Amino acid sequence: MKTIDWKIKKVRNNNMRNGMVDFVMAFMLLFVTFVLMLFLVLGFRNSVKIESYLDAVATQGVRILAIENDENEVITLANTLKMTAIETVDIDDLTCSVGSGDRVVHLVIQVDYEVPVLGSKTFKSSAAAYNEDQNQELNCTLLLGVS
Question: In the list 33, 43, 66, 118, which could disulfide-bond 129, CB 3.0-4.6 Å?
């Protein structure tokens, strides 16, 4: 009888080892999934922040260009509203060209951002306004960098 009890205990211990291995593997899988989801959520949160920043700068910047036609004010605005992920904006980042079309001011802002796990993505925002001061078309592009 003692030999049978010993064999049952040995089988039970082997089953417990297999169960523990399965438990550890399941826990590791859940942990890795949680960390991956955390990175995805943080990446998308920063993406939404960058998009709203670009929209705000484009809307205000095109108004400044239409009313004052001052490129330095647009750079000051972009640096004032700047979030931590965006590098400091220089006057060299803004390029403007004058066209012979209607009295429209068009501002395009672009930034390349690396979304964790998903890779690189280009965000663009544009806005247009009526140019009341000058009888020409003004097209400006602002390229931003990510720190």
Answer: 66
Over residues 46-102, the pLDDT tens digits come to 888 888 888 988 998 898 888 887 888 888 888 888 777 788 888 888 898 888 778
- Residue 73 CA to residue 134 CA, distance in Å, equals 18
| Structure tokens belonging to residue 87 | 């590098």
* CB-count burial class (<10 Å; 0-12, 13-18, 19+) for 41: exposed
Q: Tell me the whole-structure pTM to 2 decimals.
A: 0.69
Which token pair is 83?
Answer: 């979030």
C-alpha 69/C-alpha 90 separation (Å) is 17
| Cα–Cα dist 30/91, whole Å | 48
Q: Tokens representing 84?
A: 């931590």
